[in-house]
TrEMBL record:
This is YiaAB two helix domain-containing protein. Coiled coil: none annotated. GO terms for biological process: DNA damage response. It comes from Fischerella muscicola CCMEE 5323. Keywords: Membrane, Transmembrane, Transmembrane helix. Residues 14-66 form the YiaAB two helix domain. The chain crosses the membrane at residues 12-35, 41-61. InterPro entries: YiaA-like, YiaAB. Pfam families: YiaAB (PF05360).
Amino acid sequence: MQTLGPQQKESAAWIFQTWAAFLLAISMTTVGIINLPVDNWVKGFMSMGMAFSIGSSFSLAKTMRDLHESKKLTARIDEAKVERLLAQHDTLTK
């Protein structure tokens, strides 16, 4: 399988930092919800809201990544088509 262009690679430190920040945010929000001075049904409602927010954040991030990657691929294909047309109609080399 041939790759198109340079591949972006994240460092191990960046991956660790993103996971650590995510887990810290989820943990602190969970502790905050647990320690709220309200009834359990309110805590349940807040927990459901947090769960749906996390899920929709992952879906949004994946959708934006896929959209960005498809635009990059489309731009490369269009660029290759233009280069091929220019190479076919290059009058200086003929």
